Amino acid sequence: MKRKITAFALSITAIAFLFTSNVFAADYSIVFGNTPPSIVNFNSPLSTTSTSGFAAVNSKWNQPRAVGTNPHNGVDLKAALNTSVYAPYDGWATGITGAGSYDIEFLVDANNNNKKDDGDYKIRFYHMNSREPDGKKSKGTLIGKSGNQGTSAAHLHFGVCSTTGGLKWLRNEVNYRHLSSTNWNSGKDLDAYSVVAWNNNTASFTSYIRNDGAKEYFSEVRMYYRTSSGTWTDGGALTRSGDVYSYNFTGKVPSGTSVQWMFRMIRSGVSQAAFSPAKFYQPNNNPNASSYPYEYWTNTVS
């Protein structure tokens, strides 16, 4: 699979548009990224080992929500007040001011050389009720206690991120694929879309949400594609087989054509859509409604 990232400058522009139940503004600030700079095998932040502590997921990364950040910029895990939170990998913990007074930014030691030379590869923990002293932490070491700071119900918000050029939230699933299917479904419970693939002219991906631990499917997943930087073609709603959606481009564009594609996810009862690849905070549900370039995957039709 190939993926193309187009470089461009964006200003933060608010364009108001009305939905049936809420009024949102298309922000167009870039708050999402994609795969982190390297893939490592994380523990659950609620466990000292790789085989326990996989709490229910209350809200997934890039999941459309009726309230709060939209789409969701991290993962919310079910965690009672003062639940122990552990380092999911070796790295350095630093106290920050996020959604609470004891929140943590964790620099990942991805190459395991005990040096801060892995680039901007971080994890953020929000709503913390307490934290351990700053410094180097080994995988599975206590770093603090969960809380309800800045929110009405106790839970743990965590997510992989980059802070270079502004805070951008990255996919979580790729760092948990090594786990057995019983642990967050090998990471698929963490992100609104996962296991994106291209094979024999067919784009496929896994997509569903978690609502306070309960599994729910999107009311609609829709394909958009184009062969240049122009208008997006509405490819229609996709059909689902189990957790997997797929779309065959054979006959859609001529053989040998490079096609740019993305899909839109609509959650029942929530006006705001989410897209894959994720990029904007509160994106316009219609990618042709704005001149701001949405992110996309790129593959060649054979």
TrEMBL record:
Keyword Oxidoreductase: no
Signal sequence extent: 1-25
Gene3D superfamilies documented for this protein: Glucose Permease (Domain IIA)
Keyword Signal set for record: yes
Residue stretches making up the M23ase beta-sheet core domain: 71-161
InterPro entries attached to this UniProt entry: Cell_wall_metabolism_enzyme (IPR050570), Dup_hybrid_motif (IPR011055), M23ase_b-sheet_dom (IPR016047)
Superkingdom of the organism of origin: Bacteria
Keyword entries, A-Z: Signal
GO MF entry, a single one: metalloendopeptidase activity
Protein name per the record: M23ase beta-sheet core domain-containing protein
